[in-house]
Request: fold
Amino acid sequence: MPKKIDHEERKEKILQTALKVFAREGYRDSNLSLIAQECGISRPTIYQYFKDKEEIYYYAVKLVTGRMFNKYATFAWSTDDNYMSRITSICIDIMDNAAQNEGELTSLVDVMLQMKKEGRDFNEIVLRRTAKLTILFKRLLRMGIKQGDIIACDVNKVADHILLLLESTCFQVAFLDTFDMILSKELIANYLEFFKTNPLGNDVIPRS
Reply:
C-alpha cells in the first residue's frame, strides 16, 4: 500500500527548505529545481504546492505571522500577569525569536528589498499580516488602562510605536552584525515602563 502523504507537512518542509536556500544562495540566485533537490522531491511535485518563488515567500510571511499571532493571542488571555507585563513578554519573545531565526529573517527581509527594487512592494502584505498583532496590543493597552495598570494614553499611537520598535529590531537582527540585542530589549522595556502607573525605578525616562 502506498504511503499516505501529509500535504501540509510536505508544504511546510518545502517552505523551510526554500528559506534555507534563499538565505544561503540569495533569493535571486535560488530556483525551484535547487529547492526540490534539497527537499528530496521532484520539481513538478513543488508545482503542486507553489507556482513560483514569490508564492513561497507570501506563504512564508503568512505562516510565520499567523503562528506568531495565535501564540501571543493564546498567551495574552491565559495568564494572570498585569497587562503591561503581557505586552512586554510578547515583545521580548518576538525579539528572541528574531535572533534565533536570524538566517530565515535575513532571507525574508532580503527578498522584500529585492522585490521592491523590481517595483513590487510587499509592505501591504506585511502590514496586513501584522495588523492582528497591533490590534492585540491595543486591546491589552485598553484593558490595562481600565484595570489601572497603564496610564491614560493614545492607544493607537502606542501600539504603532511598539510595532515600529519591533520592526526596527527585526531589520537590525537581519542586517547588522554589530546589533546589540540587550540594548534593544532595554529600549523597549524602558519605553513600556513609561506607561505603567507604577514605574519600577530611576531607570525610567521622566514623564515630565
